[in-house]
From TrEMBL:
Signal peptide: none annotated. Keywords: Cell membrane, Membrane, Transmembrane, Transmembrane helix. One of its GO terms (cellular component) is plasma membrane. The chain crosses the membrane at residues 51-69, 75-95, 102-123, 143-162, 193-215, 221-237, 244-262, 268-291. It is found in: Cell membrane. The lineage of its organism: Bacteria, Pseudomonadati, Pseudomonadota, Alphaproteobacteria, Rhodobacterales. It is a multi-pass membrane protein. InterPro entries: ABC_transp_permease, LivM-like. It comes from Alloyangia mangrovi. GO terms for molecular function: branched-chain amino acid transmembrane transporter activity. This is Branched-chain amino acid ABC transporter permease. It holds the Pfam family BPD_transp_2.
Length: 312
């Protein structure tokens, strides 16, 4: 029954571009992209509690891969190339950084995104003699949305499978206490690396699929750090340790940020920072965890009330 309902829900979401105009379909593309980004980010960072700000580094690499190869290879091969480049980059980064933890990992991942942006900018200006590239692909917004919808569904399915597997259990133990995990016989480096590579590859594919939307790309567009911060806030708001948490965080926040960026374009970054602090301090475990805690508290009160009346 669960699979049937999931298939029906996916089919209903796939029909939405037929019901909306160009603006509505564009909103669906952005929403599907951020849902997938937040879900893939939470796949690794949720159980391990490693806060990564490198999302935009992989996102931008995926977009630039499409910009460079779209006139050389067929589109499916371009996506495969983007996934391969993202996985290779994640493997190299993971081997060198996943031994870091806490604030050191956060700082490194933030610096990585800026480093990649600067390297690509230097290469474009000094080697190719240009700063941006055009993307000539015959893809409409609805085609991009359908690709993101399929990738998002696959990401959710993969996350659900991981949560029920031994790999997911190992990740949760690592997130609770790495010392205990090591003494339990868990290979810390390999376990974290596998999930980091999988998560980063999906993020790279999101950037690659969304690239044709812009037609013209340059580093300042595809390596915008706002992508990293929005992804983190969305995942944390819904609950990075819950399967559906990133989805419940991404949908309302995406709509809110679209409204804020249109109404207050000069103050958007300030509002984003305030929102980040509010989520971290007020809802550290996410909305779903807070609702579950409130429900348990309500059930506990209703259960103790008859006992007190009986004793009286």
């Amino acid at each position: 029954m669960t699979y049937i309902l999931s298939a029906l829900g996916l089919a209903a979401l796939a029909v939405l571009p037929m019901l909306f105009g160009d603006y509505g379909t564009g909103m669906l593309v952005g929403l599907a992209g951020y849902v997938t980004l937040a879900t893939s980010w939470a796949m690794f960072s949720g159980p391990t509690r490693y806060i990564s700000l490198a999302t935009v580094a992989f996102f931008g690499v995926g977009a630039y891969t499409v910009a460079v190869l779209n006139e050389v290879l067929p589109y499916p091969l371009v996506l495969l190339a983007a996934a391969g480049i993202g996985a290779t980059m994640a493997l190299l980064v993971g081997l060198s950084t996943l031994r870091l933890a806490g604030i050191y990992f956060v700082i490194f991942t933030f610096g990585l995104a800026e480093l990649v942006r600067q390297l690509i900018t230097w290469f474009e200006v000094n080697v190719t003699g240009t700063l941006g590239r055009y993307i000539f692909l015959d893809l409409e917004a609805k085609h991009i949305y359908w690709q993101l919808l399929a990738l998002g569904a696959a990401t959710l399915a993969l996350s659900a499978w991981i949560r029920r597997s031994r790999l997911g259990l190992a990740l949760r133990v690592i997130g609770d206490d790495e010392t205990v995990a090591a003494h339990s016989g868990i290979n810390l480096a390999r376990t974290k690396l596998v999930l980091f590579v999988a998560s980063s590859t999906i993020i790279t594919l999101v950037g690659a699929i969304q690239a044709p939307r812009w037609v013209y790309v340059e580093p300042s567009i595809v390596f915008n750090p706002t992508v990293s911060f929005l992804t983190v806030i969305m995942a944390l708001l819904g609950g990075a340790t819950r399967l559906w948490g990133p989805l419940f965080g991404a949908v309302p926040l995406f709509l809110l940020f679209e409204w804020l960026s249109a109404r207050f374009p000069d103050h958007f970054s300030i509002l984003l920072g305030l929102m980040f602090m509010a989520v971290v301090y007020a809802l550290p475990d996410g909305v779903l965890a807070a609702l579950e805690k409130f429900r348990r508290k309500g059930n506990g009160n209703s259960a103790t009330k008859p006992a007190k009346e009986a004793n009286a």
